[in-house]
Design goal:
This protein is mainly beta. It is about 5% helix and about 45% strand. Bound molecules: dTDP-4-keto-6-deoxyglucose.
């Protein structure tokens, strides 16, 4: 299969693309490098990953953060990342292990259409804090318009 490697164009605000260096070692695999406050635009305080996504009906996310910044990667398989800044919406097909999407504060994001065995990696600028989440969409719209 021919893989399209052009970077997608982002129409949504408060997000970005981060392409990690990718070192191909022939049959010995591929090495990708993320460094806090270097190619990741914040010091990394938390790393989490999501595995065992066996259900094509699964939906994760459906929230925004008030202050947290994150970069999300698809390490294997693929999924659809939906971004919504309160005005514009955009869907990105995530499948490149070295192409992260920066999720800035005030960005509603949803992950779905996971392929079998899909693995997500997230680098976050801060520790887990439920108070930082906006989980209600109407509250999110009111918050971004305030
Ligand atoms: C995000 C997207 C991309 C913790 O206790 N600590 C943690 O660090 C995380 C990430 C989650 N949790 C608990 C909180 C919930 O009871 O795990 C449960 C599931 O979390 P959540 O519903 O937020 O999971 P996702 O996959 O919808 O969202 C996650 C991140 O939480 C979120 O910050 O932006 O991935």
């Amino acid at each position: 299969m021919n893989q399209v490697t052009e970077l997608p164009e982002l129409r949504v605000r408060r997000c970005g693309l981060i392409e990690l260096p990718r070192i191909v070692d022939q049959r010995d695999g591929v090495l990708c490098i993320a460094e806090g406050a270097r190619n990741i635009p914040f010091e990394i305080r938390r790393v989490y990953y999501i595995t065992h996504l066996e259900n094509a009906e699964s939906v994760r996310g459906k929230h925004a953060h008030r202050t947290l910044s994150q970069v999300i990667f698809c390490l294997s398989g693929s999924f659809v990342l939906e971004l919504d800044d309160g005005e514009q919406r955009q869907e990105l097909w995530m499948w490149r292990e070295n192409l992260g999407v920066l999720l800035g504060p005030g960005l509603w994001h949803t992950m779905r259409d996971f392929s079998n065995g899909c693995t997500l990696l997230v680098l976050a600028s801060d520790y887990y804090d439920e108070a930082d989440y906006i989980r209600d969409y109407d509250q999110f719209l009111a918050w971004v318009k305030a």
